[in-house]
Amino acid sequence: MRGVQLSLNKTQKLRLETALEKLESLSSTTSNNSNASVIVADTIPINYEDGVLKGHGTSEMDGRVVATICGVVERVNKLVYVRALRARYKPEIGDIIVGRVIEVAPKRWRLEINFSQDAVLMLSSMNLPDGIQRRRTALDELNMRSIFEENDIVCAEVRGFQHDGSLYLQARSQKYRKLDRGQLLRISPYLVKRRKQHFHHLDQYGVDLILGCNGFIWVGEHVEAKDDMVVDQMIKSEQENASLSGSVSSREQEQSHTSVEIRQHICRIANAVRVLSTLGFMVTVELITELVDLSISHNLDIHEMLGAEFYVIVAEKEAERRSLATKKR
Predict the structure, then answer these.
(1) pLDDT band at 130 (very low <50, low <70, confident <90, very high)
(2) How many CB atoms lie within 10 A of CB 71?
(3) Alpha-carbon distance 297 to 313, whole Å?
(4) Which of 133, 231, 321, 322 has its CA 20 to 30 A from that of 237?
């Protein structure tokens, strides 16, 4: 919530401060767990009998392990470290990222991914539109703009690093593709935790949600993953029929139009992400759907989700949820 500007009245301000104080007290009582927030010189409770390893953002002082940066305490087996808040994205191999194409270069695309350097997606590191596995030719290189061009939004996976620190991506799967008919949101990368699943289909809303590890979030209309060769054949046959009849098929009309209902769902889900980001809460698919349902249950319009009252309600609900979770333990 640091640096957030909300026009709160006195009652709302008091309610929000109470909820945040409750969240802070709950965080301090569960400091032995991951996700405990710390500031510089805060003590990090550890069990020396377990042979703990001190990692980044920690130091030993007077027999205590203290934090040297502001952030969140993370524990991986015996390793304890502090993950800095509001830091730039630090990629790892296998990360799912969402990026924006900024340049079409020979045999490669350059993408902005919220990293200190631009990422590179090689032509040889992705599936061709015809779906055939073969060597890339000069014709494929000439047709690169028919696949991705500047300002296109692309989903890909981190493949590796070069000696100069540059990042290489790969898109050898049907789920890695060009993204359209949706919204791209940019939040702090630390709010997106690495999980096994970053692709989510919210079936009840007909929306696809991609939580990029780099802090780029995609909310768009659901697209069925289909075999490229089958799709290509269907498009060709439809184009032939359209040329014979002189009219555009109903399938093409449907593909070029997103219904108003789907657009409203996209905007509502995007606003839920914005609220979570502003409050500094972890962005998960469970919390996003919970906020969407909460806004609907309170009969709020989409734009009202960004009002001060909804921020207060969400903070109170999160404090209540964490309190119940602590009692169950």
Answers:
(1) low
(2) 22
(3) 12
(4) 133
